[in-house]
Each structure stands twice: as C-alpha cells, then as structure tokens.
C-alpha cells in the first residue's frame, strides 16, 4: 500500500490520536474490517485492541514513524495524505487542460 493511502486509512479508520495519548496501552489499529462474509467467530477473533468491531492491528511501525516526524492528530494524517496526493498526481486536482495553470514571466 502506498504511504498516502496509509495516512488516509489510519486517519479514517484507525486510532492514531488515542495511541498518541497512551502508546504503551493502546494497540495501533491499521484499519477496520468491513466484510459481510465474516461470521461471528471471525468477528470475535478480529475484534481486539479496544475496538468495537473487527480490525487489523498495525505492526509495521507507521504510528511510531509518524509520531517521530511530528504528526499528532488525524488532521495531520489527512493533510499529509492530501499534500502528497497533490504532489504525485497534480492532474487530479488541476485537470488535464493546458490552461489550468498560467505562468507569467517577468
């Protein structure tokens, strides 16, 4: 998964802000699992880390990395995702028209 997607999904479905407040006791959630085919045993097996439903726990260290570089809120994660998306795919935000950006020379 691309890093910008990690930022967005954790901000949307994770518990980053709770983890920042208590990293020793809160297990970092990567994302929720929304699968209509999950039976009750699977729901119970994947409901962990204080979550209300089935989740995947983040073991990759991304929470620690984001904390190290100064991110503290879900807003920080969303802003990071959006800024990175604009850098990688400007045509999504500006369109494919050549007149989308006007440059003046002095």
TrEMBL record:
GO CC field: chloroplast thylakoid membrane
Domain of life, per lineage: Eukaryota
Any one GO BP annotation for this protein: photosynthesis
Pfam families the record matches: PsaA_PsaB
Protein name stated in the entry: Uncharacterized protein
């Amino acid at each position: 998964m691309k890093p910008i997607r990690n930022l967005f999904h954790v901000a949307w479905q994770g518990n980053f802000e709770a983890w920042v407040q208590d990293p020793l006791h809160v297990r970092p959630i990567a994302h929720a699992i929304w699968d209509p085919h999950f039976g009750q045993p699977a729901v119970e097996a994947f409901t962990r880390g204080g979550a209300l439903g089935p989740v995947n726990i983040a073991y990759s260290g991304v929470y620690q990395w984001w904390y190290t570089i100064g991110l503290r809120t879900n807003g920080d994660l969303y802003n990071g995702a959006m800024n990175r998306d604009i850098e990688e795919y400007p045509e999504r935000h500006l369109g494919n028209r050549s007149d989308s950006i006007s440059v003046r020379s002095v």
